[in-house]
Amino acid sequence: MASGTDGFNSSGQQALDRFAQMMIERMERMKASDWRQGWIGGASSVGLPQNVTGRNYSGSNSFFLQLHSAMKGYELPVFLTFKQAHNFKAHVLKGEKAFPVIYWDMLVRDKDGKKISSDEYRAMSQEERKKLDVIPFIKAFPVYNLDQTNFREVQPERMQKLINRFKVPEIRDTQGMYAHSALDNMVAQQTWLCPIQADRKEKGAYYSPSRDMVVLPMKAQFNTGTTPEEVYRDGMEFYSTMLHEMAHST
C-alpha cells in the first residue's frame, strides 16, 4: 500500500488538470468569431451550483461546476455522488463521466512519525502544533449532474421542486430587497470598465466576451423569497451575481 498522500495527490492533481483544460477549451471557443454564448450561466435557470441535498458548493467548486453546467448545457446546476444516486433509487446513465469536486485536507504527524487525527490537531495549542509535521493536500471526489442520471424518472416530485427552485422567477418588485447605492450608481452611470445591462428580463447572468458586456437579469427577478428576511437576502444575491460576472469581465 502506498504511504503518505500519493493517492490523494493523484486525484487532486487530476482534478486540477481537468480544470485547466476546461479553461483552455473555454478560451479557445471564446476566440472563435462565431462565439456568442455568455461566459457562465444556464439558459433557463438562475442559481449557484448545489448538491442534491440542497448544500451550495463554494469557492472554486462553485465556479467550475457553473462552467461545466454551461458548457454541457445541463438544465440545472444540481449534482450528486454515485452513492446519493443509489440512495434515491437512481443510477448514472451508461457512458456518463463524473466531474471532480475538490477540498483541502492535511496529513499531520508528530516527531516520531505517528499520525495525528484532525480532532487531536484541533484540540492542540499553537505551541504544540509547531512541533508537528503538517502536509496539506487536495482531495477529490466525483459527482454527476442530474441530467447524467435517471433521477427525473424515478424522483419526479423531487425533480419538479428543484426545477421550481432554479427557474427564472416571475418578475415582482424590489421592495424590501437589499440595496447597494454605490453599485446602483455605477450601473446607472455605466462607470464599470464595460457596459452592464441589468434593466431587462433575462434568462441568466453572464459576461459576453464578443460584446464585452455584463448581462444580468433585472434585480426584481431575484426577488423569490417568501419572508422579509429572504427578500432582503435576495437583494444580496443580485449584487453577488453582478460582482461575480464583473470579475469575469476583467
List descriptors.
250 residues; alpha/beta; 5-stranded mixed β-sheet; 9 helices; 16% strand; globular
Note the main sheet. Answer: 5 strands, mixed
Radius of gyration equals 21 Å
**Side-by-side strand order of the widest sheet:** 1-2-5-3-4
Count of separate structural domains: 2
- Average pLDDT across residues? 84
Order of helices and strands: HEHEHEEHHEHHHEEEH
The total strand number stands at 8
Summarize it.
With 250 residues, this protein is an alpha/beta fold. It is 41% helix and 16% strand.
Give an overview of the whole structure:
- This protein is 41% helix and 16% strand.
- The chain has helices at 6-31, 59-72, 82-87, 118-123, 126-129, 151-154, 156-166, 181-189, 228-249, and strands at 50-51, 78-80, 99-109, 115-116, 133-145, 196-197, 206-208, 213-215.
- The chain has a 5-stranded mixed beta sheet with strand order 1-2-5-3-4.
- The N and C termini lie far apart (46 Å).
- The protein is α/β, with parallel strands linked by helices and 250 residues long.
- It has 2 domains: 1-167, no CATH class; 169-250, no CATH class.
- The chain contains 9 helices and 8 strands.
- The radius of gyration is 21 Å and the shape is globular.
